[in-house]
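Support reply, case 0932

Customer input (verbatim):
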Amino acid sequence: MVYHPYEVFRGRRLHTVFTSSLVHQKWWHLLFNIYVFYRINRDIEYIIMEDDFSFPVIVTISVLVVLIGVILPNLITGFKQKNNIEFTSVGFSGAVFCSAGFCMLYLPLDVSPKTYLLFPFLHYSYEFAFMGLIVFSLVTIIFRNSKKTNHKLHLLAYVIGFLMAIILRPKLVQELIGYLLVKFN
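Our regenerated output:
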């Protein structure tokens, strides 16, 4: 079930691109990922309902976020490692980070109902989304040579979530640009 790009890019064990998301080094980490994913996807269902999608469409979007959040980052990072026989990958973090990027950017002008002690200056969803992007980018840069955690995959999945939000709801770009033009004029 472990993702091994060396084999996958040679046509073997293709199923591991997804099944690797069900494998973790530590059970508590898998349980934590599933819990965070559950909380974020409840928000995704709620925000998608604001656009009056039907229940089957909401379920389809949620499933696509999971599948794309797991498979696409694995394929992209795996492509870079396809000749490295030692490289393997496991984890559900791609789906979690993709969901987080999607959820935070889908309705960019939603106001947070509470303030956070660490970030009292953040109020809108887009501010949280871009703060997350900055934090994940810095972590990726700082720990770029880490052998244990693939931080590039986390960042990539987060950006993929952003792009999925924009593709599903392109008017969010207009809303955000319009808001920023008014704010800074």
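We compared this against your earlier run and they match. Two observations from our side: The chain has a mean pLDDT of 86. The chain has eight helices and no strands. Please reopen the case if you see a mismatch on your end.
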